[in-house]
Write a structure and sequence with these properties.
single chain; 296 residues; alpha+beta; five-stranded mixed sheet; 6 helices; 29% helix; 7% strand; globular
């Protein structure tokens, strides 16, 4: 009888369980933790992508220096109004891409059939992993057959509109007659931009004659403003055309915190989107005699 009463008393106790409020609190806590974890994972991934991008820029800067050591000068930004070979085309042998360089005929235009096949090669060293790749060129776009492989980087020809000049940066066009040397960079190699990032992020740049977003035209093999040539003439790191077409050939990036830039001493730094425009222009010129120094 005692055992029966004990069993009945035990059976009468209410069962312990989570209330709805407690369950909702637990779910909310798990959601917050998952959000924090996801943010940490995304930050870690972006950090890795940023490092890869900086390594790419460092390789490209060192290749330009090896060209300088071998030829006595940096390559032209473009063989202007003749073949339109880019500075990157001339740097290929110093990027361990001699086989690719040997297929280029530098006496012929980059749009010449065999050359155009070469510049269609997708090369990892020219691509930032954070960059959103461009959409394919529509068939109806004029000159679609002349498109090259996309890229994320461009050489710096200075602070002015590249079509009007002067080309006051670390690189110049062949029309300037004399290529640049380290000796001509009188502002100091550590305070002069050599090359940097460009992306396809212009939200109001469309394929010609269409409403299809293009975003940009960055390509490593074509020596033309907006393709492999950049300046600081427009709004830095703009996500749309603001002042005419100046942003078309102004450095910009898909990284969330700034734009990776390589200096003429081959050092690579990320510049803040909020950098003062006058300081940026001073860094873009090779002999402006400005007092601006590169941010550390």
């Amino acid at each position: 009888m005692l055992a029966l009463r004990s069993f009945s008393a035990a059976s009468a106790r209410p069962r312990e369980a989570f209330t709805l409020v407690e369950l909702l609190v637990v779910i909310a806590i798990i959601g917050i933790l998952m959000g924090l974890l996801l943010s940490a994972v995304q930050a870690a991934r972006e950090s890795g992508r940023r490092t890869t991008c900086q390594n790419n820029l460092r390789q490209l800067a060192l290749a330009m220096h090896m060209h300088h050591d071998a030829r006595g000068h940096f390559p032209f930004a473009s063989q202007w109004r003749t073949t339109f070979h880019s500075a990157f085309n001339y740097a290929l042998p110093y990027l361990e891409l001699s086989n690719l360089a040997s297929r280029l005929d530098f006496t012929q235009s980059v749009f010449y059939g065999p050359n155009n096949l070469v510049i269609k090669e997708n090369l990892p060293v020219f691509l930032c992993p954070s960059m959103e790749l461009p959409r394919p060129v529509p068939d109806q776009t004029h000159g679609a057959s002349y498109e090259g492989a996309p890229a994320s980087y461009a050489v710096c020809v200075g602070s002015e509109n590249p079509w009007r000049g002067p080309h006051n940066g670390a690189f110049v066009f062949s029309s300037d007659q004399f290529p640049t040397t380290l000796g001509r960079i009188q502002d100091g190699a550590s305070n002069t931009l050599l090359l940097g990032e460009m992306d396809y992020g212009l939200k109001n740049y469309f394929f010609r004659g269409t409403s299809d977003l293009r975003g940009g035209v960055v390509q490593w093999g074509i020596g033309y403003p907006g393709f492999s040539i950049a300046t600081t003439a427009g709004v830095f790191n703009a996500q749309a055309l603001v002042s005419g077409y100046d942003e078309f050939h102004t450095f910009r990036s898909d990284h969330p915190n700034g734009v990776n830039m390589a200096f003429a001493d081959a050092a690579v730094r990320m510049l803040s989107p909020g950098i003062d425009a006058a300081v940026l222009d001073a860094l873009a010129t090779r002999n402006g005699q400005e007092s601006a120094t590169a941010p550390q």
